[in-house]
Amino acid sequence: MELETTRVFVKVVEFGSFSKAAENLRLPKSTVSRAISRLETETGSKLLVRTTRSLTLTAAGRAFYDTCRGPVQILEDARKSLDGRDSLISGLVRVTSPEDLGEGTLASIFSELARKHPKLRVEFLYTDKIVDLVRDGFDLAIRLGKLKDSSLKSKKLGTVRMVLVAAPKYLKDHDAITRPEDLKAHACLGHSGSFFNDWNLKSKRSSVRLEMQAKIGGNQMTSLVWMAVGGAGIALVPSHLCRRDLQAGRLERVLPEWEGPEFQAWLVSPQATSSIARVKVIADALATAITKTLENM
Prior knowledge:
The chain is rod-shaped. The protein is an alpha/beta fold. The protein has helices at residues 3-15, 18-25, 29-43, 59-82, 99-116, 133-136, 168-173, 221-229, 239-248, 277-295; strands spanning 48-50, 55-57, 91-97, 120-126, 140-144, 153-166, 188-191, 198-202, 207-211, 216-218, 234-238, 252-253, 262-269. The longest helix is centred in the N-terminal third of the chain and has 24 residues, at 59-82. A hairpin with a 4-residue loop joins strand 1 and strand 2. Strands 3, 4, 5, 6, 7, 10, 11, 12 and 13 form a 9-stranded mixed beta sheet that branches. The protein has 3 domains: 3-82, Arc Repressor Mutant, subunit A (Orthogonal Bundle); 87-158 and 264-295, D-Maltodextrin-Binding Protein, domain 2, CATH 3.40.190; 160-262, D-Maltodextrin-Binding Protein, domain 2 (3-Layer(aba) Sandwich), CATH 3.40.190.290.
């Protein structure tokens, strides 16, 4: 028995007319009539007695109607509660991002959107782990490097560049650095996951792989920037994280013609962001802000 057929029956009883029920359901009257006939055939029971002037429920029809009208109404109310919801900027959006890329940028975006859209709710998770967006219920993710899940919708945001930086005082108090190999004689700060033991550097003309023994290593690039500002050594960090310190003179580029590996930044989602207004407004804001951040260096 099809649910829609049952719904047609309930509407016919409520309106007391095939014509009025058809009008309400936006169906041809013949479709409504066939639905009732099919329902009676499937149940093996006469449900309605029809004359040219009246419509009367049989005992079986009355019992069936009394049983069905509640659930049908609940389903209709549930459907109405969804009408237009995806076109409204309201409800919860869950976002995940690497901490070092998203921390400052995401916080400012979420603050601004919260002011503009009071009914919008955001939950964010900073992690370097690859989160299963579908299984864990996330709407958006910022990811770095090569994408492995081809089923996700993706948009390239820009390129993360790795640069060498150090505090002016550190550079003044230590031996000059004129070539990559000189870095081995210095205190170096590296990411414990990617740039702890090996630094791969490149210039426009050449590339070099250095086997390093980092003096300090950690899994947070922002902390490495702070340590470099404090004079702990030379750090290989994303350019967007140290931009303000470079501009303020708290850091200087080391071997400015050399850089570390580049990583592509992506905005990914389980489905097209344009289909849901609350997701789209956040996706657009993230894309604009992160692209601008990465292009400024």
